[in-house]
Amino acid sequence: MLKPYLNKKFTEAGCDEAGRGCLAGPVFAAAVILPKNYRNKWLNDSKKLSDTDRYELRPEIENKALAYSVAQVSHSEIDEINILNASFLAMHRAVEQLQPSPEFLLIDGNRFKPYPGIPHQCIIKGDGKFLSIAAASILAKTYRDDYMKTLDLEFPQYGWAQNMGYPTLSHRAAIREFGASPHHRMSFRLLPAQLELEF
Q1: How far is CA 157 from CA 153, 162, 167, 173, 188, in A?
Q2: Total domain count, the chain
Q3: Which residues on neighbouring strands pair with residue 149, listed in sequence order?
Q4: What Cα–Cα distance (Å) separates residue 90 from each residue in 10, 29, 34, 40?
Q5: What CA–CA distances, in Å, run from 139 to 6, 17, 157, 170?
Q6: 95-145: pLDDT as tens digits
Q7: CATH number (domain holding residue 16)
Q8: Is 8 helix (H, G, I), strand (E, B) or coil?
């Protein structure tokens, strides 16, 4: 069972992102405030759950959360400010939308750009330790997957409904064959060095 909170006296929001390692599409982030007495033995790091489990847990999280929000930073913004800063910006945008505003942030990972006026703590592998971070990881992942499935309807050749923009062999083969789409992150290495494209 994951922990319900780090400090009981604060209203805590768990924050996590999805899509940092992708070659295409936005990076998504979610922020979730859960009740202090909330318990759920099925809630865990989204990467440890099946696709079905994640989508079954999403309405549970949305219904039981005191507040939640999901935000994104586009592929073009990622190219401008780099993926690390884009991940921080996505989390900031998610926190900004929360009502009520949290008093403390639990951040998955080891780095974060402080959010003005709200203290935080970075927790390595936090999505496997705290319920609120796990909930955020599920929302960020499922909302991003839905977005990539929508893009797949316009660009089916890249297989985004299956690979979600991650650098699979088939995704890279499609880039090699069809070139980059308008949704690819041009600051990323889209192909291995031996298969570089001339853009």
Answers
A1: 9, 11, 14, 10, 19
A2: 1
A3: none
A4: 23, 5, 20, 26
A5: 20, 9, 27, 26
A6: 999 999 999 999 999 999 999 999 999 999 999 999 999 999 999 999 999
A7: 3.30.420.10
A8: coil
6 in a domain, yes or no? no
Q: Which of 102, 120, 21 is nearest to 65 (CA)?
A: 102
pLDDT digits (tens, 9 = 90+) for 53-90: 999 999 999 999 999 999 999 999 999 999 999 999 99
Token reading at 197: 């494209």
Geometric angle at alpha carbon 46, from 80 and 90, rounded to 5°: 25
Within a domain: 7: no
Q: Is 73 helix (H, G, I), strand (E, B) or coil?
A: strand
For residue 179, give the 3-state DSSP assignment: coil
Residues in the chain: 199
Contacts of 98 (CB under 8 A, 6+ apart): 13, 31, 33, 67, 68, 69
Cis peptide bond upstream of 167, omega within 30 = no
pTM exceeds cut of 0.85? yes
Domain of 44 in residue numbering reads as 12-191
